[in-house]
Amino acid sequence: MNREELSLAINQWMKDNGTEAIALASKLVQIESVNHPPTGHEAEYQLYFAEWMRAQNAEVDLYDLADVPGLREHTAYMSTRNYDNRPNVVGKFFGAGAGRSLMFSGHADTVYEGTEAWTHPPFSGTVDSGKLYGRGSYDMKGGMAAALMAVKCLQDLNIPIAGNVYVESVVDEEHGGANGTLAGRLRGPNPDMAIIPEPSNMRVYPAHLGGGIWKATFTGRSGIAFAGEELISALEATIEFANLLRAYNDYRHETLEIPSWWQDGRKAEINLLTLFSGDVSRELQEKLPQTGEINFWIEGYPGMTGEGIIADLWAFYEAQLPKYPLLQKCKPQIKPLIRYLSASEMKNDDNTAKFLELIANSGAKALGQSPEPPTGSPFACDGFMFNLYSDTPALVLGPSGGNAHGADEFLDIASYEALIRWYAEIIVDWCGVSGDGEV
Ligand SMILES: [Zn+2]
């Protein structure tokens, strides 16, 4: 079989095995694996993942995070989570010869189903009109299923892939987790290259944004001014701070230097998440609210830190204070709610350049046209655990879909099948085939 015939065989395999591929993605969605910080419900999913890989002749390492030396002492470890009965799992496939190694690494956990109404139940994995619905279908069980199916495709075709291919499923990525990914780096393996199948709509992201969630709380002076005393509405102060954050977002757009990966993409943003004030258990309020709080998300580029971002916000706050009369009387307390997820990018070297070129060529084979050029991701993820704390560079490449973290989250099935073919092509091109000349 020459290389062209192999691509045709991969295409034909995908046509013949679409039903099985969809069934796997659907099954992964049906095994609920919601993250409820500080705990999480990934165990059943991880055991299924391990079993599936064992059945495909993988060498499987299923381990507790507690058994990873140095994890709790690591500077990037976030100590507020509980890892009882939340194992990581990694499977090793192929490796018959001397080829470069590759890992697909993704998170097992999902966010909860939410309180919004779903058209199809969130853990049904229902397929309807080319979409596979369910919590985690898009973020990121679809991408992980694609990695597993790409491996199976090459196994079914009896292609003796030379380098090792690993598929790693980690716990606790949502809500600022990423300790599972760190555990994977400390325990290994740390192959030559990693792909994170987070939903990227088939875009290649060699760099990803960072981000963190903070809470600002306000204490006003409550009551009713019978004697004309001065009262301070914590609600009004909270709203002023919300407006200050919006002004700060505009200011960052004008002043932050945009790294090259993001020149054409979405820029780092600030989002307001929740705002509460007063006694939220009562509909009728008979006084100015005593307390207010606002949660917000701030994104950053590679090299920025959570402390640096908040220091910059405080500098902006001080400079703008004359415009915000209530904030002058009611200063917020700001604290982080999660760890700051660092932004990161692949090392800028020959290895990365080679891999990006290979990804583009493999994509052309799988998609029948050149993929979109690489760009910086519009979201934060755990890729920094690879790029900052291991020697393995990682990029993000995953399927299309929509409504991540919302109701009716879905995976686009056509993109899922194209991604399986793309991953299979990447494995062949990057890891090589034993007995060269055969393919
Ligand atoms: Zn994700």
Description:
The chain contains ten helices and 18 strands. It folds into two domains: 3-206 and 346-431, Zn peptidases (Aminopeptidase); 209-336, Alpha-Beta Plaits. It is an alpha+beta fold and 439 residues long. The protein is elongated, with a radius of gyration of 24 Å. It starts with a helix and ends in an 8-residue tail after the last helix. α3 crosses α10 (413-431). Bound molecules: zinc ion. Residues 107, 139-140, 173, 198 line the site of zinc ion.
Q: Over the alpha carbons, how many angstroms does the gyration radius reach?
A: 24 Å
Task: Give the C-level CATH assignment of the largest domain.
Answer: Alpha Beta
The 3D shape can be described as elongated
Report helical residue fraction.
25-40%
**Count of individual beta strands:** 18
Distance between the termini: 5 Å
Mean pLDDT, nearest integer?
95
Strand order of the largest sheet: 3-4-8-5-9-16
Q: In the CATH hierarchy, what is the superfamily of the largest domain?
A: Zn peptidases
Number of helix segments? 10
Strand content: 15-25%
* Uncertain regions spanning at least 5 consecutive residues: none
Question: CATH topology of the largest domain, what is it called?
Answer: Aminopeptidase
- Sketch the topology as an H/E string, one letter per element: HEEHEEEEEHEHEEHEEHHEEHEHEEEH
Instruction: Label the structural class.
Output: alpha+beta
CATH architecture of the largest domain: 3-Layer(aba) Sandwich
Could you say how many structural domains there are in total? 2
**How would you sum up the major sheet?**
6 strands, mixed
Ligand identities? zinc ion
